[in-house]
Amino acid sequence: MNIFRLTGDLSHLAAIIILLLKIWKSRSCAGISGKSQILFAIVFTTRYLDLLSTFISLYNSCMKVIYIGCAYATVYMIYMKFRATYDGNHDSFRVEFLVVPVGGLAVLINHDFSFMEILWTFSIYLESVAILPQLFMISKTGEAETITTHYLFCLGLYRALYIFNWVWRFYFEGFFDLIAIVAGVVQTILYCDFFYLYVTKVLKGKKLSLPA
Amino acid sequence: SLSINPKDEL
């Protein structure tokens, strides 16, 4: 555990809680892609199956349980509790175009051809693109609530911090996981355009809206 | 193997 890893995890946790609080306080999930949230629930479920087989640390187990619990709570709020506020018409990204290729890639390129390892690889690949329905929705409507942009910023920051964590681990532990690193870099690149808008608009007190 | 086993990262 290093400082980048810890702050990365906390940033991830902050993102998840910001989103839950936004929906809960406003009693609305307007502007939130339910499809991205379903993908994240799938990501956590397929990655954290090792909760049942391997104990790593109390920290590790607690965070996994919290991430999974929050992911399903978010999906429940969007599709059940506050379903009436869900903007399904604008959430039109075709997720099969992500899930099918990612599934194929996980079977082809993995560290070990075993059930758990392929599911883990699938979750790593899927996480790297799971935000696309959300970004697609924002580009379609041309705007995002400020609280939604804070959520996206924390989520992107988590990924950027993980890259620093891998640099640290490579230098000080001689460790690297190519699958996690490549997927993590792809995921971070997807946020670059958003980071630019966040810094130039949202941090200056303006609402995030895209030019028509 | 180069992978994290056990997977300590989240």
Short summary of the structure?
The complex is a heterodimer of chains A (212) and B (10). With 212 residues, chain A is an all-alpha fold.
Report strand % of chain A: under 5%
Secondary-structure element string of chain A: HHHHHHEHHE
Number of strands of chain A: 2
Mean pLDDT score of chain B, rounded?
70
Describe this structure in words.
Chain A: GO terms for molecular function: ER retention sequence binding. Chain A: It is found in: Cytoplasmic vesicle, COPI-coated vesicle membrane; Endoplasmic reticulum membrane; Golgi apparatus membrane. Chain A: This is ER lumen protein-retaining receptor. The complex is a heterodimer of chains A (about 210) and B (about 10). Chain A is globular. Chain A has one domain (about 5-200). Helices cover about 70% and strands about 0% of the residues of chain A. Chain A is an all-alpha fold and about 210 residues long. Chain A has eight helices and two strands; from the N terminus they run ααααααβααβ. Chain B is mostly loops and about 10 residues long. The interface of A and B includes residues 112, 175 and 179 of A.
Please outline the helices and strands.
The complex is a heterodimer of chains A (212) and B (10).
Chain A: H1 3-26, H2 34-47, H3 58-81, H4 96-108, H5 115-129, H6 132-141, E1 143-144, H7 146-173, H8 178-200, E2 208-209
Antiparallel strand pairs in A: 1-2
Helix pairs in contact in A: 1-3, 1-7, 2-3, 2-5, 4-5, 5-8, 7-8
Chain B: no helix or strand
Annotation keywords:
heterodimer; A: 212 residues; mainly alpha; two-stranded antiparallel sheet; 8 helices; globular; B: 10 residues
